[in-house]
Each structure stands twice: as structure tokens, then as C-alpha cells.
């Protein structure tokens, strides 16, 4: 994966140089400010490092293909980009192995990708990893349970605590109950046992 360095009197100037030379749009790149240099005669200069988002996605794609190959799996990856979110859906000759018990293997892959984004690329680019339609079905089931529990909370006026979930699953619950009349949600506890409590409104 190639990194590009540009400099200018300001970040804006250096960024404009990068966009023109690389022939990309602003939303297609990651910008990391490297350092500010003070020349003896040239004055202050700002240096930035540019990484193309497409290069990051390709790098992660190669990592997943190589890793799953070492697991003895024949894997294909479907990639979709929408706004600032990249969805990577894996299909293999043994999807249960990729998913793992209760989604643990898939969750481990997602954690590794998150670490790669933070350490290797210094970015929080939103990449969602799935195996076939596992997460899709899982989220639909979680939303069903959340709504069913919310209806019970409205009826009894007694708060209910859901099972511990990861941040992605908790976000789905918060979103699906945002406009649910008569209840509100709160996250409680520490990872990995952080959970959502559905509470009745006064």
C-alpha cells in the first residue's frame, strides 16, 4: 500500500496539491498531518501524508483472503461503499467456521480490522464485516427482541435489562427504540459485559 507525502504553507494548500496530483476527491482519501517545518528562508511548511481509502480496503481485502486461505477456506469478498461506510461481506465454502460460535470468529476479524485501521493507517474509517447475511439476520432478531421487551416495559412500567452486546448491536437497539413511545434506553456496565437497559418514561 502506497503512502503519498505533500507539503504546503497550510494543510489546505497541501491537500489541494494531493487532490490534483492524485486525481481523487476529498472523501476518497485519509489525511494525516506529519509535521510542521520551519525553513531558514522559505518560512513555515506543513507536511501531510495521504492514503487512498481504496488502497486501505484492498489491503484489508488481501489480509482477509490470505488469513481465511490459511484456515483452509475458499473465500470471496463482496465490497460495497456507501458514504463513509465500507461493507465487506465474505462468502466461503464453510461459513460456520468463519462465523464461529455466537459470531466469535467474525467478531475477532472485526476487532483485528479495527486495530489495523487505528495502528497501521491512523484512521477510524467505518468498515463493517459480515459473513453472508449473518449480521443482517442477527440485527433483525435483536431489533425484534428489543421491540418486544419495550412493549413489556410500557405495559408493566418496570425497566428491563437486555443481554450484553457489542457496540454495533447496542447501536441497533438504541436506533430502533429512539422513537418508540413510552420508553428510553441507556447503556450500562463495562466491556465486554456492557448492556442496554430499557426504561419506562415518566
What can you tell me about this protein's structure?
The structure is a single chain. Strand 2 (29-39) and strand 3 (43-52) form a beta hairpin. This protein is α+β, with helices and mostly antiparallel strands and 202 residues long. The strands form 3 sheets. Strands 1-3-2 form a 3-stranded antiparallel beta sheet. Strands 4-5-6 form a 3-stranded mixed beta sheet, with helices on both faces. Helix 5 (134-156) crosses helix 6. It is built from 6 helices and 9 strands. It is globular. The protein is 43% helix and 31% strand. The protein folds into 3 domains: 4-51, no CATH class; 54-132, GMP Synthetase, Chain A, domain 3, CATH 3.30.300.20; 136-200, R3H-like domain (Ribosomal Protein S8, Chain: A, domain 1), CATH 3.30.1370.
Overall pLDDT level? 90
Rg over CA atoms:
22 Å
What would the CATH topology of the largest domain be? GMP Synthetase, Chain A, domain 3
**Spatial order of the strands forming the largest sheet:** 1-3-2
Got a strand count? Answer: 9
Please report which band the strand proportion falls in: under 5%, 5-15%, 15-25%, 25-35%, 35-45% or over 45%: 25-35%
Spatial gap, N to C terminus: 55 Å
| Integer tally of domains | 3
Spell the H/E element sequence: EHEEHEEHHEHEHEE
Low-pLDDT stretches are: none
The structural class is alpha+beta
Q: Which overall shape is indicated by the principal axes computed on the Cα atoms?
A: globular
Helix residue percentage: 40-55%
The CATH architecture term of the largest domain is 2-Layer Sandwich
Q: What is the CATH level 1 assignment of the largest domain?
A: Alpha Beta
Biggest beta sheet attributes: 3 strands, antiparallel
CATH-assigned homologous superfamily of the largest domain: K homology (KH) domain
Helices, by number, come to 6
Amino acid at each position: 500500500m502506497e503512502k503519498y507525502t505533500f507539503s504546503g504553507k497550510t494543510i489546505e494548500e497541501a491537500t489541494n496539491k494531493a487532490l490534483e496530483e492524485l486525481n481523487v476527491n476529498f472523501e476518497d482519501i485519509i489525511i494525516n498531518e506529519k509535521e510542521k517545518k520551519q525553513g531558514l528562508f522559505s518560512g513555515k511548511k506543513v507536511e501531510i501524508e495521504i492514503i487512498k481509502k481504496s488502497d486501505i480496503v484492498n489491503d484489508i481485502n488481501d489480509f482477509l483472503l490470505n488469513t481465511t486461505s490459511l484456515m483452509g477456506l475458499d473465500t470471496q469478498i463482496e465490497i460495497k461503499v456507501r458514504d463513509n461506510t465500507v461493507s465487506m461481506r465474505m462468502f466461503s465454502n464453510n461459513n460456520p467456521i468463519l462465523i464461529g460460535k455466537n459470531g466469535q470468529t467474525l467478531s475477532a476479524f472485526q476487532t483485528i480490522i479495527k486495530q489495523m485501521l487505528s495502528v497501521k493507517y491512523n484512521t477510524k474509517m467505518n468498515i463493517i464485516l459480515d459473513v453472508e447475511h449473518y449480521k443482517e439476520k442477527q440485527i433483525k432478531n435483536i431489533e425484534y427482541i428489543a421491540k418486544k421487551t419495550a412493549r413489556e416495559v410500557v405495559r408493566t412500567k418496570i425497566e428491563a435489562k437486555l443481554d450484553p452486546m457489542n457496540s454495533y448491536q447496542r447501536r441497533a437497539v438504541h436506533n430502533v427504540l429512539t422513537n418508540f413511545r413510552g420508553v428510553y434506553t441507556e447503556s450500562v456496565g463495562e466491556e465486554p459485559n456492557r448492556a442496554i437497559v430499557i426504561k419506562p418514561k415518566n
